[in-house]
Design goal:
With about 500 residues, this protein is α/β, with parallel strands linked by helices. About 40% of the residues lie in helices and about 10% in strands. The N terminus is likely disordered.
Length: about 500
């Protein structure tokens, strides 16, 4: 499969070929095999391209590592390069060759130590299929400049993550947030420059989309600083590789760690926070954090971490205009159990909640529960002070298969434009059934419940011009005709059943 075939559907074709080689291997395990190989191919191609460039410029010394470091390119010794690995594609030693390559790359690049999974030589991994995967990836250029212009690697990696998330179902939610949700948050927050933080970063999707946003708006990616944290060790490694592939420098902490009990960025006050923390965690160890400095608005219940996440984010926000966007289960909008109602009321009265967006169902591979976006800001504009914008987007989106819904680019832009126009004092107006600005006093009258449907009302139905009496007569006639047809069909079915001895 040559690089020139990277048109529409390229990622799907590559996925189908790779998935065919999976055989009976569990998707959760196969994920690391495939993504590790893509990463290895990328660092090798990137190194090779830089080396050839240096040779053309008269610098033939591939040992001059500073030249590679300056361009955020990993140093890859000869024995670890893809050109060497592909020679063993049909050998039973292919697993050992890959493990050795990964070990050497880790040894030569401090930022990758402890990140790469080196277990390709294990007996249960079919070496024939592994070799076929190597051949599959050999025939695509994922690290060259030409390929990067088409964002081939980014597309392949992101597409594979989404497919693995789908294959793993509930477990997939631990490392992957659907792209349309990430794009919605990024479009609303517009993280153009400054510090970006995700305290539950999964495989790093929020960061990658933020960087893409900067590039699309002719900004400089070097103007953003990335900080993240992830508790799952294998997901933390995925994030490190995902960001490295996109040549994004990031501080994801010294190791994987729990944000509540081992905060890796204690002094951070970020300009932007984007997150999709795990919903409704009951065993987060809250009973050991009763006096924590982060609980400014109230002590979160030990049985549910939702309001612990919200306050953790607020704690890490820059006090001058810092903004956070997070996905959360809808229960948090109205729950009054175990101190949650009190915390929500304190946050509303503290004027840190700026916008709530109800999303449609079925957006996630991992859960069917309805979710919302919370936008929280320190230092609101004069337009937004003392107010909250409610957006009901539950009717948006389209089904991409029998189980999953997706927001279109038009849906995302409509949500983002509505939010930005309002907070910037531009052309905004309430739209019945879709958006409504409510004052804190109005929210207090609703017992501090934040469900958008309470405020936006029901969408107005266009009058079709048919008088009510005529419409009721017509609809009633049609209904009775359907009843008659139903009775006729029932009688016919009974007769046919009786004819074969199954009637009454």
């Amino acid at each position: 499969m040559a690089a020139g075939t990277t048109g529409i559907g390229f990622e799907e074709k590559l996925w189908l070929a790779a998935d065919k080689l999976r055989s009976n291997m569990d998707a959760a395990e196969y994920k690391h095999v495939v993504l590790g190989l893509i990463f290895l191919k990328y660092v090798s191609d990137s190194f090779e391209e830089k080396y050839q460039q240096l040779v053309a410029e008269g610098y033939g010394d591939e040992e001059d590592r500073d030249e590679y470091v300056a361009d955020n390119i990993f140093y890859v010794p000869k024995e670890a390069r893809w050109s060497e690995i592909q020679k063993y594609a049909t050998s039973t030693e292919i697993g050992k060759v890959i493990d050795n390559a990964l070990e050497v790359i880790e040894k030569e690049n401090d930022s990758l130590k402890g990140v790469l999974t080196k277990n390709y030589s294990r007996p249960e991994l079919d070496k024939t299929r592994l070799g076929e995967l190597v051949t599959l990836f050999t025939n695509i250029e994922v690290g060259s400049t030409a390929a990067q212009e088409k964002d081939v690697l980014g597309r392949v990696y992101e597409y594979f993550l989404s497919k693995f998330a789908s294959a793993e179902g509930k477990l997939g939610g631990e490392f992957y947030t659907p792209s349309c949700i990430v794009r919605t948050l990024v479009s609303m927050l517009e993280p153009f420059e400054g510090q970006i933080f995700d305290p539950a970063c999964g495989s790093g999707g929020m960061f990658c989309q933020s960087a893409r946003f900067v590039k699309e708006h002719q900004g400089n990616v070097r103007d953003i600083s990335i900080f993240g944290q992830e508790s799952n060790p294998t997901t933390w490694k995925l994030a490190k590789m995902n960001l490295a592939i996109r040549q994004l420098e990031a501080n994801l902490g010294k190791h994987n760690a729990d944000s509540f009990h081992d905060d890796q960025h204690k002094t951070l006050k970020a300009n932007y926070i984007l997150a999709n923390p795990p919903f409704n965690i009951s065993d987060w160890g809250g009973e050991r954090l009763q006096e924590d400095v982060r609980w400014r608005y109230g002590i979160p219940p030990a049985g549910n971490a939702n309001f612990a996440w919200l306050q953790h984010m607020l704690h890490h926000l820059n006090p001058v205009g810092g903004v956070a966007g997070t996905v959360l289960a809808n229960g948090s909008l109205s729950s009054n159990t175990s101190n949650e109602g009190v915390i929500r009321q304190n946050m509303i009265n503290g004027d840190v909640i700026e916008c709530i967006v109800s999303l449609p169902g079925q957006l996630f591979y991992s859960t069917g529960i309805p979710v919302s976006l919370w936008i929280m800001r320190k230092g609101k504009t004069d337009t937004a002070k003392g107010k909250i914008l409610f957006i009901d987007a539950r009717k948006m989106g389209h089904m991409i298969d029998r189980k999953v819904r997706e927001l279109s680019e038009e849906d995302i832009q409509k949500i983002a434009d509505t939010y930005q126009n309002w907070r910037q004092g531009k052309e905004y107006e309430d739209v019945q059934g879709f958006c409504k600005v409510a004052t804190i006093a109005e929210v207090s009258e609703q017992d501090y419940i934040l469900t958008p449907g309470r405020y936006v009302g029901i969408e107005e139905v266009e009058d079709d011009g048919e008088p009510f009496e005529e419409k009721m007569t017509r609809l009633t006639t049609e209904l009775y005709e359907l009843f008659e047809e139903s009775h006729s069909l029932e009688s016919e079915i009974r007769r046919k059943l009786a004819a074969i001895g199954y009637g009454e």
